[in-house]
Amino acid sequence: MAPGPAEGRFSDVRSGPWLLPGHDGRLLVYALVDQTVLRWTEAGPGGPDWLGPDALPAPDVTRLVVAQGGNRYAHLLGRRVREGRGGRLAVDFVYAIQYQAGRPMSEWTSVGSPQTKQSPSERTGLPAAAVNTAGILYVFAPTADGRVVLRREDAKGRWEPWLDLKVTAALDTPAAVATSAGHVELLVPGRTGALTWYQRKPGAALERGHDLSVAALPGSVTGLETSPGRVTWYLTDMHNGGIVAVRAGEWPIPLGGDPGDGRHAALATVLDGHPCTVLAHRDAEGRAVLGVCPAEDERNGVWWSDAGTACVGDPVLARDARGRVVALAVTPDGDLVLSRQTDAPGLVLGDWIRI
Q: What single string gives the DSSP state of each residue in 227-238?
């Protein structure tokens, strides 16, 4: 794994950034830039110094997804686009893994393509990934004909065949969550609402849940386990442009806001002794915005505030080794900047610092 560019400016971030905790408490940052995955690593748990970026070449990879399980391994899933037969584009997925913070990432291996005669591979959408408590990776991909397909590892780490989840009304960019109980849940934006799947027990087949009565903007959805075994989905409503929280069996809860077209970030934490949810997104004016509410109490309002920086792409959230909320964003100038929670009551971020 080679050192990355040293100038610290990245004007062509194609996917990410992602901010994840490593096995030793150090935070890790990943971003796809110019067909290269760049990775930064905290020099020590809690910062403030950083090492990197280190670079993993990612030839022909146009989009990247990073997922993490309880063992803190980072699973990198790339959407690769190459020229196929007759000059047509061919899309497949490639996979790499990092086992420990500061260690090299593996080389890319192919996960294959869900291509069929009815669904050309060049129109395969952006995948979603989740890792359950057994360390098994699930890959979900939307196809050109409105289907969603699943490929997952078996107990020995071998890839099972692609499995059709039997829908024909799916749009692009699903979202997946693995709960602390080992279940995997999936939400896919659909033509008439949000489509959901769940598992009755860990490792079981995914079953269709009830459709949710909200028109989710593709690419906006994120899921968070807001109480044990219970997932809340946060998304942008295509009908009114506002932010919505929704849980299985409940009506959608409008949260207000003026989000842009990106993905929401969601983080569970404790503020002043109370379980809370922290949200982040890029608003319609290109500013990073934070929201805070008690866990699963969105109906009583979310407190929104400007985070103090403009950004491109989607801001992301994590907790560092000291339990502080950390926000990360890419500025319009291409700087990767980070802000940490201060010791003030509630949630107050400190200055934004360039990595």
A: ETTEEEEEEEBT
